[in-house]
Amino acid sequence: MPYRIDISCPPDDALDRLVQLGALDIEPANDGLAAIIPDGVTPDAVAAALGVAGVIVSPAVARDNGSVWLLSPRAVRIGSVLIAPAEVTAPHNALRLTDSAAFGSGHHPTTALCIEALEEALTIAVPDSVLDVGTGSGVLALAALMMGVSRAVGLDIDADALKIAAEHARLNNLADRLQLVPGGPDVVDGVWPLVVANVLAAPLIEMAPVLVRRVGSRGRLILSGIPWSLESEVRRTYQRLGMRHIRSETSSGWTALVAQASW
User: Fold this and answer.
1) Are 106 and 76 in contact (CB under 8 A)?
2) Which of 73, 123, 255, 258 is most exposed by smallest CB count within 10 Å?
3) Alpha-carbon gap, residue 241 to 239, rounded angstroms
4) Exposure string over 148-182, b if 16+ CB within 10 A, otherwise e
């Protein structure tokens, strides 16, 4: 597991040396630097590379279900959407999120791919509603609302995630436009013109027959959380169910897939 180091009075080229060691994040701290170091690099190796007697080691905090490592929450811009921690100064139109355990801080490639796909879809037409399957922090549903969608429904099997998504909706004054429902796509009825599901490849394949029934006529479906090596398997699963593949985009080994209903 990656760990945090703190270095007092680092050498002038410490930043470059930490990057060469594969540091996952680096920022100023007190009179020195802090960094998150991969577990394959020992603290002694870090000290030797920096030419210092030693470094202070402490646990690092994982975010997005252990897939993102940051020293502290920070703002991130994805297309026109600025996602900012609740406690930092940011423009009034920023999407505010708390530092929580729910997936969807904005820093994971799958979240960025989904928001980019959402923004592209909304430049073509702005639907009146969106269904977000596996809503996590609520980031995708809330981003869609901030981009002009009137209403959103967020589904998640994790009760804690739904509580966090509700908090984020209140924080962004969007609680009256976001409905949160425990469960998967089988717990709701009806269809949506735009459906997004950022989960993982296996559940996407498993829920495919139900998920496509939630997509309205000529509606769009955005799928993410797919390792690039499994993109073709997920794509073929949905094509067999009548979804027409529009495009796929890959970032840092993860793929988002955009499809349209053929009915």
Assistant:
1) yes
2) 123
3) 5
4) ebebbbbbbebeebbebbebbbebbebeebbbbee
pLDDT bracket for residue 237 (50, 70, 90): very high
Rg (Cα) of the chain, in Å, rounded? 20
> Stretch 179-203: mean pLDDT, rounded?
98
Q: Which two tokens stand for residue 196?
A: 């997004």
Strands 215-227 and 129-133, bridge-based pairing: unpaired
21 by DSSP, 3-state: which?
coil
**For residues 197 and 223, is the Cβ–Cβ distance under 8 A?**
yes
Question: What backbone torsions phi and psi does residue 17 show, to the nearest 5 degrees?
Answer: -65, -40
Looking at residue 163, its pLDDT comes to 98
Give CA torsion, residues 206, 197, 253, 102, to 10 deg: -110
Residue 69 to residue 183: CA distance in whole angstroms: 28
User: Contact at 8 Å (CB) between 181 and 153?
Assistant: yes
Q: What is the mean pLDDT of residues 227-249?
A: 98
Phi, psi (rounded to 5 degrees) for 44: -65, -40
pLDDT digits (tens, 9 = 90+) for 57-75: 999 999 998 899 999 999 9
